[in-house]
Amino acid sequence: MKRIAEGRTAEIFQEHHESVIKLYRSGFPKDAIIYEYEITKQVASLGISVPMVHELVEMEGRIGINFEYIEGKPLLQKMAEHPQELDDFAEILAEMHVTLHRCEVPADERGKPFRKQKEMLAHNIHQAPQLSTDEKHAILQILEALPNGNRVCHGDFHPDNAMVGEKRWIIDWMTGMVGHPAGDIARTLILFRYGTLPEAAPSHVKDQLQAMRERMGHVYFNYYLAHSNLQMDEIDQWMLPVAAARLTEWIPEEEKDQLRSVIRERLKLK
Ligand SMILES: Nc1ncnc2c1ncn2[C@@H]1O[C@H](COP(=O)(O)OP(=O)(O)O)[C@@H](O)[C@H]1O
Ligand SMILES: [Mg+2]
């Protein structure tokens, strides 16, 4: 099998022309993999364009998911290959997010199988070792006052998880949930502003993207605002809890330091 891509959590192998195996790194929590498997099926049944999910597999002690092979490229790669078309790609990304957020999760699926955004955020904020008890308490109170929302949210929507070809597909659903679009947008903005790129990305791609990131975030955000009913301040309210929740992820220390200073600044303003 040929390895065709690699992310932070998994390697992607092409099995034959029609299918790939997303093989998680060893030790990766099994329940999270099963959640991705189930939630991807569920969002497909709601009419969202995702690769078809075939089955769970085990290879050399590692767990994987067998997916339909997507004949397309992630927007991140398109941006690196055609930097002059950056604005167009950032708009496609925003358009995909607007379309996703129109999709409502049926009432009987909220909570199970779809995890709830505010519960997920609260869970992660509780775990964040870099925050004091008082800081956590203040952030959790802010989160509590935010609206629940009933839309499909991706939880990690960025240009490497949006694929385009003859169609468009959203991939990588491990953080998929039911929630408020404003929180999902805040997450994407935080990734654009403070995110570091996977170590595996070639350095020329990294340098190029680092420089273009701010621009992408700007175009993406303006397009989203212009094509949805959300206001900037509704989204801004989610920045603090979403940034705090990200502290529990597998991200570089320098990114955590940066997030922590953003969190402290925002808490001071409250
Ligand atoms: N079904 C698929 N068909 C073709 N390529 C895929 C497919 N799924 C993932 N990929 C490629 O693998 C990369 C990583 O996949 P992803 O599910 O986002 O894993 P990770 O959780 O590690 O980010 C994607 O950016 C894409 O390039
Ligand atoms: Mg990914």
Automatic annotation (TrEMBL):
Residues 5-214 form the Aminoglycoside phosphotransferase domain. Transmembrane segments: none annotated. Pfam families: APH. It comes from the Bacteria. This is Aminoglycoside phosphotransferase family protein. It comes from Paenibacillus chondroitinus. The lineage of its organism: Bacteria, Bacillati, Bacillota, Bacilli, Bacillales.
